[in-house]
Amino acid sequence: MSDFQQPMLGASSSSMPGGGANAPASPGSPSLRHRNFFLNESNSNKGFADNTVRTSKYRFLPLHPHFFLWRNLFEQFHKAANGYFLLISCLQLIPGLSPTGTFTTLVPLCVVIAATMLKDVFEDLKRHKSDREVNERKVPVWRQGQWVGISWSELAVGDICNIASSEPFPADLLLLHSSGDHGECSIETASLDGETNLKKRYVPQQLVMQPYFALPQNPTSIRGLVECEHPNNRLYTFEGLLDTSVSGMGRPAVPLTADNVLLRGATLRNTNAIIGAVIFTGSETKLMKNSSSAPPVKMSQVDDVTNWQVGYIFAAQIIIVLGCAIASVALSSSALKNWYLGQLTKPSAASFFFSRAGTFLILFNNLIPISLYVTMEMVKVIQTLFINNDLGMYHEETDTAAKCSTSSLNEELGQIEYVFSDKTGTLTQNVMEFLKFTCARYDPQLKRDVAVSYGTGTTEIGRAAAARSGRPLVDDRPDWWYQTKHPFQFYDSRINGGQWGRQDNRAQLEFFFCFLAVCHAVVPERKKHPITGIEEVIYSGASPDESSLVKAARNIGVEFVSRAGTEAIISVRGVEERWNILHTVEFDSTRKRMTVVVETPDGKILVMCKGADTVILDRLRPDPLTAAIRDETVEHLNRFAGEGLRTLVLGMAILSQNEYLAWSKLFMEASNSLVDRAAKISEVASRIEQNLELVGTTAIEDKLQDGVPETIELLSSAGIKVWMLTGDKQETAVNIGFACSLLGDDMGVFTFHNCNSDNIAKVLQAYLTDAKLVVNQDLALVMEGSVLELVLPPAENEIIVELNEEEKAAAAAAKKKPTSKLSGVMAAYGMSDISQTSLRRETELFLSLVTRCRAVICCRVSPLQKAQLVSLVKKNMKTVTLAIGDGANDVSMIQAAHVGVGISGLEGLQAARSADYSIGQFRFLQRLLLVHGRYNYRRISRLILYCFYKNISLYLTQLWFCVFNFCTGQSLYDPWALSMYNVAFSAFPIVITATLDKDVRMERLLSKDQFPELYHDGLHHTLFNTGTFWLFLGNAVFHSLLGFFLSIRILQYFTDFSSGLDLGMTGSGCTAYSAILVIVTVKISLETQSWTVVNIIVVLGSVLLWYAFLGLYGNFFNVAKIKDFALWYGMPSQVLKQPTYWLAVIIIASVAVLRDFLWKVWRHNFNQKLMHVVQEFESIDRPFSRKDVLRYKPHLLPKFQLLKPYEANVKMYSSVFVDEDVTMVPKIAMLSVANTAVKAASTAVSVVERARNDPSKMKQTGPARAVPRSGFFASPGKVRINDILVDELL
C-alpha cells in the first residue's frame, strides 16, 4: 500500500466522505449503498467485471454450458409444438407401435430444428465477429510510467486512459483532464440515445483548480479514492465522490455527477484529447446494462386465439385416441376366435390399451399441423420486408424508412381500436419557433409594472380557433414580411432591428433577453456552412425549446457566445459580458423547472428560474403589485395557449451574499450525498425558488406535421379511436385537438373541473347517463392528469410505489396491514386510504364513458400516467391498443401497449428503438395500419384457418378408415406421402396467398372518399375467431368424409375387376389422398382474391409435384430396400392407369368444392359485405368513390349506413349545457334538470333539444340553457358541453 493510500484507510469516520456507516469498504468489496476503488491502482481494484463484451448467445466449446447445440435445442424445445412432435417421434421409434413408419415425423422435425438452428447460429456468428472487433480495439493506458496500447478487453477499473478526438470510449470513464478550454469536452451520444446533437462534459471544477492533478505529461500524479453508485442502467444520472487528500491533509471530497462521466458507446468530438479513469467495465457499463434489459414479450391476439384452438384440437385428439383405443380393446377378443390367425397370446387389457393408445396418437398426430408455426414465421418475415421497403412510408427529408423490429405483431396492426399518441414531436414537428413573449413595463398611470405582450402573427392552430369562434383574426405583420422567407419567425416593430433598445422599458427587455441567453444548458458549436464557407454557430440542446429561446435572444441582439469554465459569455448588442454560473439545477419532469444561480457582471447574485406556469406562478411574491401583473400574465398565457403555443414563465430573485453562502453550504452537502442525491438537491433548490419576481413569459410555436389532420380523420373513419396524451395546458391541448381534427365543432365534449375524490364518481355517473342518451353525435372527453389520478385503480398505482425497509417499518408501527403497496405507504404516513370498492366503481364508470367517446384528450399527464392509462385500457377492454411517441418519456407508454410505434424524431431514437415498429412521420401510421395491418390480418387469418383445414381434411380420413380395419391402427396412406403432405404438396399455395393476396386495392383504404370502413373486419375480429375456426374445421370434416367414403364407393362400383386386378387398400388410399389434395388445392384457389402468375404456377405445380412424386416413389424401393418404402411399391403405375381413379378424383373434388363455390356466389351477389361491393366496382376498372355506390346501388343504403354522408346523420339542434363548476350548481336546479331529462325520455326524445330555427326557444331557462353551437369556451373557466345533458350531479 502506498503512502498516499494509507491515511485514507486509517482516517476517522468523521473525516470520511459520507461518514460513519457510509465509510468506504476495501476496493471491490460489496457495499449496500455504493462501491469504491482507487485511481491508477488497477491491481488493487479486484472483484469487478472485466471489460470483455459478449453480445453473442452461444459458445463453440462442447463442454461450455452455452455450447450452441445444447442451448439452441433447449430453446427450441421450450416451444410446446416442438416438444409435442418430439414425443411423437420417440413413440414412432418403438417397434411395432407406429402405423406411419419409423422416421416420418422425426425427419421433418429435424429439418425444422436444423433450419432454425442454422439461422440462429449464423446470426450469432455475426455477433461473435462484432464482439471480437470491439474487444480487440486498442486504447493508450498509463502503466508503469508510460502510455501502453492495450486491447479494450484488458482494461480494468481504475485504469487511466487517453482518448483522442473521434474515438469511442472503451468503458465508462471519469473525466479528469481535457484539452478543451476550462476542462470541457464535447461528446456525441447517438449510439446511446439516438441524439445527434453534441453534449458537453466537464472536468470537476475542484480538479480544474488543481492543475497538478491530471497532467497528460505525468499521469502518475493522478491519485484518489472514488466512491460511487453501483452499476445501473440510468444514462442521465450518476452519483459519486472523489477523495484526493494526500498524506492526511484533508481536502474536501469532490462530488461527481453525470456531467463528469463519459459513457461507453459515446464518441469524443471537437476536442483533441481527454484523460479519463475507468469507472465501470464490460457488462457493468451503462450501455450494456441498457442492452441487457429486454422489452416485454408481446403476443398478438391471433396467436393467443390460435394457442387456445390448438389446445381444443389436442383435447379432441386425445378423446379420439382414447375412443379408438377402447374400441380396439373391445374388438380384439373376436380376433382370437378366427382359426386362420393361428395361436395368439392374449395380452393384458391394460398393456394392450396403452399400446393401442400410442399407435392412435401417432396416427392422428398431424391433426395439429407440424408446418403451421414454420409457415407463419416465413410469411411474417416476408411481411416485415414489405413494411421495411415500402416507399410510401419513406421520409425523404430525414432519410428515414419504416422499420419493423418484430414480426410477431404484424397481424395485430389490422386490429387496432385505440391509438394513444404523444403530442410534441409525434403530432407536431418538434421544430420550435419563438413567436411571442411578455415582459414588464412601468405604467405611469397605474404607477406599477404591467405585463406587455410582444410579437405579431398567429399559428395555424390560432387561425382554426378564430374561425370556430367567429372572431376576427388580426395579423400585424407588414406585407413585405410575407414576400420573403425568414429564418426567424418573430416580428414586432417595437423589437426587431434593435428597436427594443429605444423602448422606455429597455432595461427590462435587456434583462429578459440576457435571461434567455444565460439560463439554459445549450452547447454552441461552430461550423462552416457547406456552401458559403461562413462560420456559423449552431446551438445544440437536449430540448428544442431551449435552443429556440437562445436563438431568439441572438436574433434580437443578445448572443450566447460560449462557455469558459463556469462563465457564460454573452454579447449584448456587441458588448461582451461574462456571467458566472455558480450552480445549476437541471430541468426534469417532476420539478418542471430549471434554476440557475448566477453572479452578474456587476456582482449581484441572482436566482433565475424558468418553467411551467403552474409551477412558477405559485412561487411569485405574495404582494398586491405582483398579483396584478400575475393576473395580466395569466390572460396573456391563456391567449397564447389558445393559439396552440408552448409557454414558459421566467422568474428571478436576488440573494444577498450571506443568503447565498448559507444556501451554498446546504447545496454542497446535498451534492456530496451518495443516497437520494437528486431528491436532496431538489429540496434544497426549492428553498431559493420562492418569492420570485416575474420577469416575463415566452411562447413558442410547434407546428403540426404534414398530413396529421387527414390521418386522424381517416383513422377515425376506419373506426379507430385516437387519444392524445400530453403535458400541455388544457387550452393548448384542446385547440391542437381541433387543429388536427381530433375534435370537431359538432362533437359533444365532456370536461372535468373542480373534481375530487368525493364527487368524481357522481360526475362520471352523470356524464355516462347523458352519453347513453346521445344519438347521431360523436362525443369527446378532455381531462387533466389530476383527474386521471382519481380514476386509476390501485393495481395501476402499485407499479410506481415500492415499499422500502423504512416504509415497511412505518407501516408495522402504524399497526395496519397494507392491502397493497400503495395503501401500505398511505397507512404508514397517515394518509387517507381509498377504498377498493369506491375506486373500482370510478374506474368502471370511467371505462364505460370513454368507450362511448370517439376522441379523448388527457393533458397535464406525466410519462408514468401515460403508461398507466394505456395499461388500464389494455387490461380491461377486449380490444387492441397502439401507443405512438417519439421521445424517451414515451418509452413506458409504448411498451405498455399491445403494439408500440416509435417516431424517429428530433428527441432521439429512444422511442424508435424501444418500439415494435418505427416510422418517420405520424401520417405514415395510416398506411401502416390500414394497408399493411389489414392485409396482414386477413392473410395470417387465412393461413391459420387453412393449415388446420387441410390437415384435418386428410388425417380424419384415417379415423373413418378405422371403421373398416377393426380399429387396428392401420394407416391408409404411405408414411412418406404423409410426411410430404405438409412439406411439399400443400405448403406452397398458402404461402403465396398469405404473402401476396389482396382483396381490394390499397387506395380504397387511404381516403375518406373511398372505404376506410373496410378496416372494421379487424376491429370486430370477424375473420379469425373461435366461430370461424370451427366453421372451417366443420368444412374440413365434411370434405374428409366425402374424400374417404366417395373414393371407396366409386372404386367399389366402377372398377373393372374382370382382369383380376384389385386396387385394395393402397389403391384406395392413393385415390383418397389424391382427392383430398385436389380439394384443398381448389379450396385455396377459391380463397385467393387476387391472382397472379405466381399463384397459377404454384397451384398447378403443387398438383404436378404430387404426380411426379408418385411416378418416382413407386419404384424407389428398388433403390433403397427399406420397409418404409415398400407399402406403395409398384402401386402408382397400376392405379394411374385406371379410369376409375381419375373419375373418383374429379367427382369427389367437384362435389366437395361445390358447396364452397355456391356459398361464395350467394355471398358475393345476394348477401354482400362492403368488400364485395368494392370488388364489384373494381372489376369495372374505372375510377369510383363511395358516392358512386350510393348512386348505382341505392338499395344497399339500409344495410350500409356507414356509406351515408355524415351530414345526413346529424340533426342541427342547439346545445344544452351545464356550467362546468359542478360544485356550484344548487341541488334544486339539478332536480329541475333531472325532471327535464325524465320528461324528454318519456316522449322518446334522446336528448333535450331546442331547434335552431325557433327563436322562442333560444332564451335562457334556468340552469339548463339553450345556446348556439358556436365556440367551445363560454368564458374563461366555463366550458359548454355540446348536446350533453347533465341530469345528476349531486
Automatic annotation (TrEMBL):
Residues 40-106 form the P-type ATPase N-terminal domain. Residues 912-1168 form the P-type ATPase C-terminal domain. Its EC number is 7.6.2.1. GO terms for cellular component: plasma membrane; trans-Golgi network. GO terms for molecular function: ATP binding; ATP hydrolysis activity; ATPase-coupled intramembrane lipid transporter activity; magnesium ion binding. ATP binds at residues 422-424, 546, 587, 610, 646, 726-728, 860, 866, 889-890. It catalyses: ATP + H2O + phospholipidSide 1 = ADP + phosphate + phospholipidSide 2. The keyword Translocase applies. CDD domains: P-type_ATPase_APLT_Dnf-like (cd02073). The active site is at 422 (4-aspartylphosphate intermediate). Residues 1-29 are annotated as: Disordered. Mg(2+) binds at residues 422, 424, 886, 890. It is a multi-pass membrane protein. It is found in: Membrane. Belongs to the cation transport ATPase (P-type) (TC 3.A.3) family. Type IV subfamily. PANTHER family: PHOSPHOLIPID-TRANSPORTING ATPASE, PROBABLE PHOSPHOLIPID-TRANSPORTING ATPASE. This is Phospholipid-transporting ATPase. It comes from Bodo saltans (Flagellated protozoan). The lineage of its organism: Eukaryota, Discoba, Euglenozoa, Kinetoplastea, Metakinetoplastina.
